Amino acid sequence: RAKEIGRDAVQVFTFELADRAHEKLERQEELRRALAQTEFFLQYQPQMNLVTGRIFAVEALIRWRHPERGIVSPGEFIPLAEETGLIGPIGDWTLRTACRQNKAWQLSGLPPIVVSVNVSARQFQERDWVERVAAALEESGLEARYLELELTESLIMEDVQQAVETMHRLEQLGVHLAIDDFGTGYSSLSSLKRFPVGRLKIDRSFVQDLPGDSDDAAIATAVISLGHSLQLRVIAEGVETREQLDFLRDAGCDEIQGYHISRPIDAMALQALLCLSEC
Ligand code: C2E
Ligand code: MG
Ligand code: MG
Ligand code: MG
Description:
Oligomer: single chain
Number of strands: 9
Order of helices and strands: HEEEHHEHHEHHEHEHEHEH
Bound molecules: ligand C2E, magnesium ion
Number of helices: 11
Strand content: 15-25%
């Protein structure tokens, strides 16, 4: 009897595994199709300078318009894209699209802004990554200083030596670098000073309970002063309320991004928003 139950359990287990493997293969196939048929699109979220009130940059965020499932967010497909290596071509598409779009805004007469693009570890570690960035700039005609790349601490810490070298080559190209989700990783202070980055992005998890949560208030304040002592600008992400904005401004934070300013929006809507505030 025990043997029988055991056998059944094993059977259920293998069926489940096979099911899961099958589902993963299907998802992978779907991702490939999405890329081939351009089911991906970018939205752009404004970043505001807290002193001038100006929108000076936007973060490009990828979405997937799935034929049956509707709009799928990056959290649901970027991990699989990373696992399967599809992040290479998807990342290239994102980079090129963001550069081309930013150039198009400039050509339409808007004051130039920086477009910030998220980079996955696997992408960043590709041998020809710097050349791909250069190609995206060349092809779009966008000047390097209007592109920023967002790297995470964990990406950098996977191989600090290599990462610092690549970062220097990107710096030579003239693109800006930022550390995303700052505070959630574990980059040491001694390595931080070696990174040629211009900005730290305080992770949303430290912002959402401001100003009430005294731990988060202490962390946000500390990151701002750490950034400033290293001559870096500091931006807070996920700012949703006026109270959070006020706290961050009082704490000396340079810039903010979040629903309080705007959700991520389509290129057309962003153009209208910039035009309203600048034209
Ligand atoms: P992230 O780079 O930290 O991007 C910020 C995320 O916070 C975005 O989620 C954005 O929509 C969301 N957000 C912004 N303001 C607020 C706010 O006030 N409140 C709340 N609750 N959320 C806010 P999204 O677009 O779902 O992206 C999630 C993550 O997926 C990104 O985190 C980034 O790590 C990754 N990602 C997005 N686009 C790309 C891409 O093109 N390439 C790669 N490699 N990763 C990407
Ligand atoms: Mg980001
Ligand atoms: Mg972030
Ligand atoms: Mg992130």
